[in-house]
Design a protein that fits this description.
The chain is α/β, with parallel strands linked by helices. The protein has a single domain, classed as SH3 type barrels (Roll). The protein is 13% helix and 28% strand. The chain contains three helices and seven strands, in the order E-H-E-E-E-E-E-E-H-H. The chain has a seven-stranded mixed sheet with strand order 1-6-7-2-3-4-5. A hairpin with an 8-residue loop joins strand 4 and strand 5. The longest helix has 10 residues. The protein starts with 15 loop residues before the first strand and ends in an 8-residue tail after the last helix.
């Protein structure tokens, strides 16, 4: 059983935040610049390293964060497999300064992924529904 909240979305469908305290004099951890999250480590609930945040994808018409692109495998960025992870499937651990994705490493290896030169059409609803279903996450547009 995970020590982190369930990855099921509540309310606006955003990533959950645990730990940390709101900074009265500046942003975070509830509101942060997207580029400050790129490169953040992603672990699972067992503490195993799953990779890092490569990109954050916005649904421009709705103004919502749709996916975090997770880079996994490879060495020094070469041979990495990329995964579009629904934003609501992640938990930001503000104390550890990392994201938690409640998934086994082997299950992640078998997740629908892509390489840096062959990105999927993330606006394709069939693809998007499959991704959200794989991570047991409610689609952000619902």
């Amino acid at each position: 059983m995970s020590n982190y909240p369930s990855s099921t979305s509540t309310g606006g469908g955003g990533a959950r935040v645990v730990g940390g305290q709101a900074n009265i004099s500046g942003p975070g951890p509830e509101v942060m610049a997207a580029d400050t999250l790129q490169g953040d480590k992603v672990i699972n609930s067992r503490g195993e390293n799953l990779g890092e945040i490569e990109d954050i994808m916005l649904d421009v018409p709705s103004g919502r964060v749709a996916y975090a692109v997770l880079s996994f495998g490879g060495v020094m960025g070469i041979g990495d497999k990329l995964f579009a992870v629904p934003w609501s499937a992640l938990t930001l651990d503000a104390d550890q300064k990392c994201f938690v994705l409640d998934i086994d490493k082997d299950r992640l290896k078998n997740a629908p992924g892509f390489d840096k030169d062959h990105w999927p059409s993330m606006a394709d609803t069939t693809w998007a529904n499959e991704v959200h279903s794989y991570y047991n996450s409610r689609p952000y547009w619902q």
